Amino acid sequence: MKLKTRIAAFTVLTVSFHAALAQPLASISEFTQPQIFTEWVQNRCMGHIVDSAALKEDANASAAAWLEASELPVEAFNEADTIITQALKTPVGGTAKSDYRVLKCSLIAHSPEMTALYQQFAARKAQ
User: Fold this and answer.
1) How far lies 59's CA from each of 34, 54, 105, in Å?
2) So which residues are the signal peptide here (predicted)?
3) pLDDT class of 3 with cuts at 50, 70, 90
4) Percentage of the chain lying above the pLDDT 90 cut
5) Which long-range contacts does 91-99 make (Cβ < 8 Å, 24+ apart)?
6) Which domains does the chain have, with CATH numbers?
7) pTM for the full model?
8) Which of 2, 72, 95, 107 has the most CB atoms around its CB within 10 Å?
9) What distance in Å separates the CA atoms of residue 18 and residue 26, rounded to the nearest whole number?
10) How far apart are CA 106 and CA 42, in angstroms?
11) DSSP 8-state symbol, 1
């Protein structure tokens, strides 16, 4: 009897877990404008660092999707792209022997420079 109870409980938990995983992805429209800008920076940066042509194309297409959802002017993205290019030249260290390119993209996307850039253009838009 105990075995049947355990099997039933395991089945319920397994089905519940798989149902939770089957939830649809969030829509871009559910993100705030600052989040949209941050995601654009992350995707655009990924486009700069990848070696694969297919992944580069995907990263740039993904960045374009975020750009379309943004209310900032194109100039904000042009300036961000310049910051990305410069910041990628900055060495980042860690315990593993690596260039940490993906880590750099995360750090760039959440950097004070990008936050300030977003705030600058958001303030202009609000005027």
Assistant:
1) 19, 9, 12
2) 1-22
3) low
4) 70
5) none
6) 30-126 (1.20.120.1620)
7) 0.80
8) 72
9) 18
10) 6
11) -
Residue type, 93: G
Encoded amino acid at 67, one letter: L
Residue carrying structure tokens 């297919």: 54
- The answer to whether residues 105 and 45 touch, using CB atoms and an 8 Å cutoff, is yes
What contacts 24+ positions apart, CB below 8 Å, involve 40-45?
Answer: 40/66, 40/67, 40/70, 40/77, 40/80, 41/80, 41/84, 41/105, 41/108, 41/109, 41/114, 42/105, 42/106, 42/109, 44/77, 44/80, 44/81, 44/84, 45/84, 45/88, 45/104, 45/105, 45/108, 45/109
